[in-house]
Specification:
- Helices cover 35% and strands 15% of the residues.
- The chain is of the alpha/beta class.
- The chain has 2 domains: 116 residues, Rossmann fold; 183 residues, NAD(P)-binding Rossmann-like Domain (Rossmann fold).
- The strands form 2 sheets. It has an 8-stranded mixed sheet with strand order 8-9-7-6-10-11-12-13, sandwiched between helices.
- The structure holds 2-keto-D-gluconic acid (8YV).
- The site of 2-keto-D-gluconic acid (8YV) has 9 residues, from loops.
């Protein structure tokens, strides 16, 4: 009996590709060239399943490809805002993601950015590498203390909760959270105070970290007006999705020191970064590294593979989102 053909849009860690090859007929992407609308349409036409990533724009137009052989999109990642799920549902395409396995690493990277922005590590590193460090000075690159400060979490799902734990237990921070899906209990979780509004959270936080999905409702949630509700010494961290922040408004606010600093892992038009941000010293810029550890990328591969295996065995995939 012929095996399902799975088209893999990007190069994956070797063990994941080996596992996929053992289970399915696969078409891999050894050159790792990012997909185009035309190559995605080709994958939908020819594969029974497509293992896709955040760099694949699976728009309504692309998903309307006909004739289409693909029946499942197994996304390698938890966020799936790059897939038009309404169109996918309309065409009867199953969509899965890879939750849980990247929670800890993404929370760790959030703390990396928070600390780097607060303690000006990027600036310090650039100084040393440029050969411009003239030696220790009592007033050099003074940052802001993290321990004991107030961390405001926008979005209190799996990753937000993991960040709360690290911040509370590791850094003695007071954690507050705003998430419209939280029940109106006094506390979001033990030791985490719930805020009724975003404005309340922004006005009370020394650090603001974003952990909400990118949806039409959260697009540009952080904009000129909401940045104006933040404290002047506040630091913004974003490891969720670039769309949640109006990047141009953030660059303007950082240049004017309306807020102190930011740490960003994600951008509105990845891999492009707003040019206004690139020249600023008070922003730490990482290239979407949230889940980038060997352990997690293997686990994500296993999870995506498990979804494909279940689907082609006629079972409900464990991580179905559409
Ligand atoms: C992934 C991510 O690396 O899982 C997510 O939502 O943002 C990243 O950590 C990326 O999505 C891979 O497709």
């Amino acid at each position: 009996m012929s095996r399902p053909l799975v088209i893999v849009t990007r190069r994956l860690p070797d063990p994941v590709e080996q596992q996929l090859s053992a289970l399915f007929d696969v078409r891999l992407n050894p050159t790792d060239i990012p997909s185009t609308p035309a190559s995605l349409a080709g994958a939908l036409r020819e594969g029974d399943g497509v293992l896709c990533t955040v760099t694949d724009r699976l728009t309504a137009d692309v998903l309307a490809t006909a004739p289409r052989r693909a029946r499942i999109l197994a996304n390698f990642g938890v966020g799936f805002n790059h897939v038009d799920v309404v169109a996918a549902r309309h065409h009867g395409l199953v969509v899965t993601n890879t939750p849980d396995v990247l929670t800890d690493d993404t929370a760790d990277l959030t703390m990396t950015l928070l600390l780097a922005a607060a303690r000006r590590s990027g600036e310090g590193e650039r100084l040393v590498r440029a050969g411009s460090w003239s030696g220790w000075r009592p007033t050099q690159l003074l940052g802001t203390r993290v321990t004991g400060k107030v961390l405001g979490l926008v979005g209190f799902g799996r990753i937000g909760r993991a960040v709360a734990e690290r911040a509370r237990l590791g850094f003695g921070m007071s954690v507050i959270a705003y998430d419209p899906s939280l029940l109106a209990a006094a506390d979001a979780a033990p030791g985490v105070r719930r805020c009724a509004t975003l404005a309340e959270l922004l006005g009370a936080s020394d650090f603001v970290s974003l952990h909400c999905p990118a949806t039409p409702e959260t697009r540009h949630l952080i904009n000129a007006s909401t940045i104006g509700q933040m404290r002047a010494h506040a630091i913004l961290v974003n490891t969720s999705r670039g769309d949640v922040v109006d990047e141009t408004a953030l660059a303007v606010a950082l240049a004017r020191h309306d807020i102190a600093a930011a740490g960003l892992d994600v951008y509105e038009g990845e891999p492009a970064v707003d040019p206004g941000l690139l020249g600023l010293d008070n922003v730490v810029l990482l290239p979407h590294l949230g889940s980038a550890t060997v352990e997690t990328r293997l686990a994500m591969g296993e999870r995506a593979t498990a979804n494909l295996v279940a689907y082609f065995a006629g079972q409900e995939p464990p991580d179905r989102v559409a």
